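Changelog-linked ticket: N-(aminocarbonyl)-beta-alanine example.
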Amino acid sequence: MRTLIANGIVVTAEGSSGADVLVDGEQIALIGRDLAATGVTADESIDARGKYLIPGAIDVHTHMELPFGGTFAKDTFETGTRAAAFGGTTTIVDFAVQSRGKSLREGLDAWHAKAEGNAVADYGFHMIMSDVNDETLAEMDTLVAEGVPDFKLFTAYPGVFFSDDGAIFRALQQTAKNGGLIMMHAENGLAIDIVAAQFADSGKTDPYYHGVVRYPIFEGEATNRVIRLAEAAGVPVYIVHLSARDALNEVRAARDRGAMTFAETCPQYLFLSLDDMGHGFEGAKFVCSPPLRPKDHQEELWSGLRKDDLQVVSTDHCPFDFHGQKDLGKDDFRKVPNGLPGVEDRVDLLHDGGVVAGRLTRERWVEVLSTAPARMFGLYPRKGAIAVGSDADLVVYDPGRKHTISAKTHHMNVDYSCYEGRAVQGGSDVVLSRGSVIVRDGEFTGRKGHGQFLKRGLSPALRQS
Ligand code: URP
Ligand code: ZN
Ligand code: ZN
């Protein structure tokens, strides 16, 4: 099957130009001007006049079916990758979970079983490590060889995912040997739990207080600590879901002194704020960790994206219904399952609030959503690029289309939207995954099981300062 996508503006991290793209089978075969006029033929032609042609977006932080607080994130690999595709995201990297006392292998096998035959677009895995011991450290090497080269550890969630500094340091040292990458959830969970208990004990139990007790300085402190530990081990570190100015300043300082420090932020920290949490129990819709911050942190994050102190925007997609899941914490904010839906909205939100609003160039938009995550997580140039030989994961994107985000029309399997009623400019018209059209003009044309596991390589770029 050959598909010719003609007349579009090809936008990549490197630049923009008018060009046609020929897809042959699953890959990009040819890029050039007026290909039809030069005799190129195809089985199907897609007219992209007036539209951008961008590499499929890559979301390197999702949690399909994550167990959390006595329940499970609602999207499956089928519903989650389908929703992602509607929003122009053609690859996800999800977090497999090692449960306490079990092996990494068991956790990874469980995630393979959830995804295989179900995903509609390609996927990879990182591994959440709940125990660091001789066995799990040895298993890390095996996982690296199997294409799962990143490991998330937490300074948050004591008693659940929390690791102490010694455990984190051992895991970092292991990546010095096996070339993997440690991803850190950096908030001081022990200190947070003290403040949270003090608030709850004094009757302050509304979801709003979730946002109050997790001080920005607790994120800044933990971010500095894990960066320093990584420097001591001589390895890179990647800070996930960075939300606060305090943490960004630590990342900036580290990068300025040449440390191999990398970080992502998420749309919720760019577009939502602590104010959204202050409407009674409705605030539970916005309970995530790190929490939404006061509004004045937002422009700092945008600036961090422009200056490359933040390299990636992912979603941390982790959807729980408002009715039946978030309300587990009706009487105590500490029991609200942590996480927000967002895998479908990231590309359009960043286009509207970034490109249209003049905060990001369209090339930087593509870079933070697709090319940088591909480079950082061992997918480039197979993904994240429009180049001959790359997978034909492509999005015909209409930069002028206006629509309103709503739970009534989104495809995520969750009963609310954090962005309900927000008008955005920009939308994905046609989405291809490895050469197959999986979304066309708002209709799903893909297939459950089309998505393949991506065995990812190491990223040497991470080890250059
Ligand atoms: O609130 C969040 N972020 N939930 C998902 C788990 C995590 O920490 O990433
Ligand atoms: Zn986290
Ligand atoms: Zn997460």
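Closing comment: Example verified and attached. The longest helix spans residues 216-233. Residues 155 and 249 are 18 Å apart (CA to CA).
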